[in-house]
Amino acid sequence: DTGVSQDPRHKITKRGQNVTFRCDPISEHNRLYWYRQTLGQGPEFLTYFQNEAQLEKSRLLSDRFSAERPKGSFSTLEIQRTEQGDSAMYLCASSISPGRTSGNTIYFGEGSWLTVV
Amino acid sequence: RKEVEQDPGPFNVPEGATVAFNCTYSNSASQSFFWYRQDCRKEPKLLMSVYSSGNEDGRFTAQLNRASQYISLLIRDSKLSDSATYLCVVNRGNTGFQKLVFGTGTRLLVSP
Hints:
heterodimer; A: four-stranded antiparallel sheet; 11 strands; B: mainly beta
């Protein structure tokens, strides 16, 4: 499978614990995005990387959230001191710069489901 | 007010019916427009891009009205497999990247 890969797919954690999600984008995709989706809502933008640079962060990304993409390939999203309101599906997506043969379609991974109890 | 507004539904239709979804967006600087499909507990998948001239892909027709900031999706000859949530999406990003803003989605249920 050469799509966007996310791990773990499901995580149940106690309030106050830290969690980390990993995303492996489609090979050669230089752009990587994190979105969050809660029940009954559409996905909401969290942050964007071009290669290793984090170029934009949403105000939704509080101080407890940090995302990295150290080598411009895979990315991690860490949530510290989790709260019940963090329960959601965390979606990673990737795309390639416009002008390349693949166009700039965004491809989503299957998501990482977080439940904070 | 949400930046992208959609009727959440559900729309219950019989197989073979024609169904139309609409959405409105508030940011006139939005660059491009899409419909995504999302199955229950799955990731969103691009259904089609939306252009002012209107575009068709098989049984699906999408239309954009920039003046009214209105986007539509028409599904003809509905199939059971069309049951899903349809997300209206606008791209607010600049040429540097895509910043997709999603509506809450419209749920479609196609019954035999």
